């Protein structure tokens, strides 16, 4: 039975069939979803093994292999899945990659990919609630995918900071300090906007933790005055 289901899933993918074709599929697993889950599980296993041997990867393994594989998965399934299902998997993969400290991959292939639907927006330059709403929530905060968008924005900000921290841990470059301050400003804005939405309380919690972590990092290298306003917003 398992072999038959797997064969059906592979056939669905190879034909480019959309998942909606199998709605009401006699109670059986949807082959498109099944094929995606198989590829996602295989990719996660590959990444966990890759992280486990981070310091001793095979010489013939291309540095872009992990990115290329994930890029191919998204390209293969984006047009075949319902929008919300596709978005959910982008964010779940972003959370997974963040948990294993693959922040660049999570940033560009997951959270960033989700946000490309909003066009070319320089997130860190958004400084007002009105501008924020205009760019990301023109139909208000009660839309079906609003929670996903908040989650993608928060994930993108956190991964951007982690990339800065990896590249310049002592914040020796002015650009690194400026980027951290921009991220603090944006995280404060996001948490303020989310605050009234009880269903997203966990994002408020995550946001305040990261505001504190980034502020503490800046303070340890002599930038206490610059972060005071962000720490005060946590009180």
What is the gist of this entry?
Helix content is 67%, strand content 0%. It has helices at residues 2-14, 31-52, 65-77, 83-99, 103-115, 129-136, 146-167, 174-194, 201-219, 224-232.
Walk me through the topology:
Layout: H1 2-14, H2 31-52, H3 65-77, H4 83-99, H5 103-115, H6 129-136, H7 146-167, H8 174-194, H9 201-219, H10 224-232
InterPro entries: CFAP54
Pfam families: CFAP54_N
GO biological process, one term: cilium assembly
Describe, in plain words, how this protein is organized in 3D.
It is a single chain. The chain is mostly helical and 235 residues long. The chain has one domain (66-232). It has ten helices and no strands. Helix 4 (83-99) packs parallel to helix 7 (146-167), helix 8 packs antiparallel against helix 9 (201-219) and helix 9 packs antiparallel against helix 10. The longest helix has 22 residues, at 31-52.
Could you tell me the strand content as a percent range? Answer: under 5%
Q: How big is the Rg? A: 20 Å
Q: Work out the number of β strands.
A: 0
- Contiguous uncertain segments of 5+ residues: 1-5
Structural class by sheet pairing and helices: mainly alpha
Helix content: 55-70%
- Report the biggest beta sheet as strand number plus sense, adding barrel if it closes: none
| Overall structural domain count | 1
Shape: globular
Distance between the termini: 58 Å
SSE arrangement, N to C: HHHHHHHHHH
The average pLDDT value, as a whole number, equals: 88
Helix tally?
10
